[in-house]
Specification:
This protein is an alpha+beta fold and 135 residues long. Helix content is 21%, strand content 47%. It has one helix and eleven strands. Strands 3, 5, 8, 9 and 11 form a five-stranded antiparallel sheet that branches. A hairpin with a 2-residue loop joins strand 1 and strand 2. The termini are far apart.
Length: 135
Amino acid sequence: MSARGSHADEIAAQAMLFETFLEQLRTDLATSSGGVTDQGAKVVTVGGVNLRAMASAGTLLGFSLRETTGAAAALVYVRDGADAGGKLLSIVSLAAGESIRDWFGPGGLSVGAGVYLDVTAGQVEGAVYLGGAEQ
């Protein structure tokens, strides 16, 4: 093999290493906030009635909810899906003005079609904690 061929092979190998590095950098930036790698749960703020917190498969790690009217009870069905027809994951019943925090970590609850909060009575606000999903 000539010196010229060896040099071309070295350049090709370096280009391949650069492409691998660049792809890893893209992946790391996609799972970061301002360049800092996300290591905890993704937090999705929710409020009102009938709330879609996640639209893909992933993990429900927990939630923090509060009844907002202060005058009526709230009933929430946490579902795996896009709407009220999704598989039931949890039921949350709140008295007027009450709040609740539930954590299912470290593994959480696997969901296949997203997380939907089916608010059948009252109104709630709070946050849903997700893992391994795009919002």
